[in-house]
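Quick question about two entries, pasted in order.
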Amino acid sequence: MNENLSPDYQSKTGGKSQIREEPPRHYYGDVTRRLFIAGGIIVLVGMPLFADYLKQMVALSALGVIAIALIAGFVNPRSRNVQILLLLVSSAAVLFFESYAAYLYSTMPLEGRGLLFAAATQLLAIIFFLALYFSAKTVRGMSPRAR
């Protein structure tokens, strides 16, 4: 096996070494996937803790986590369409979580669990902002002019 290549780009098939093709330059899909998974885990952990703050949004939150996990699972360095989907979903998530965080800061008393809930919402906005940035860099890097 070629020792100069990272293990991510090497796999064994039938006892023979096979080198997979490297992802495109400026590919940040793996970073975006990790951010999506981190955001999904925060929502999953927070749902039971903050169910009284979510009320009608519990089912929507659960569906959102499922969608985030599915989209993260489809991340592929060769699919521009998936990268565009990541860009769109992370944009929507930033808009949703930041708007909701601003609403919480202006309408609820920020003490105890309320403060923790508002901070978690703001953290999710930051996570998806970073996912938006890295997905935008990936889409830009996949454009024909960037090659």
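Here is the second entry:
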Amino acid sequence: MARVWLFGDNIDTDQILPGRYAPYMTSEAELGKYPFVEARPEFAAEVHPGDVIVAGGNFGCGSSREHAPVAIQGCGVSCVIAETFARIFFRNAINIGLPILECPGAAQAAQSGQRMEVDLASGTIHNLDSGQEFRATPYPPFMLEIIDAGGLVEYTRGKLDAEGAA
């Protein structure tokens, strides 16, 4: 069960993590102290591990820095659900193992503080407070493997280790 943090449309990477924080911090834990520091200063201190971000369209637009999804993951967010994602953010999120789902209905119906359950394998999003259930397009198996491994680097490392062990 996850608590919803609701955001609007066109949340860009500078709103997620202002650019001035990116060059000096490289660890996920350090970046996790600053997501939405200007737009929602309370976010990093109040988010709980497993919470979800639910947003409108074009989430993650702006720069191609992967610091933004790393910061979201670093503060404990388990999944981002949005109407649509900027393509570069989508790819960066998958590359680091941050689950994201496009589901316009869930994004439009959600309210901050509601509770949700998300099943990535089936694409099912269940709003526990409203009783509504939504279906996002489920990930293909290889993308689930990347997410489960913790991102593309860990996925590749595991594949290479398995080949070397054979």
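Reply: The first strand starts at residue 2 and ends at 6. The mean pLDDT is 93. Hope that helps.
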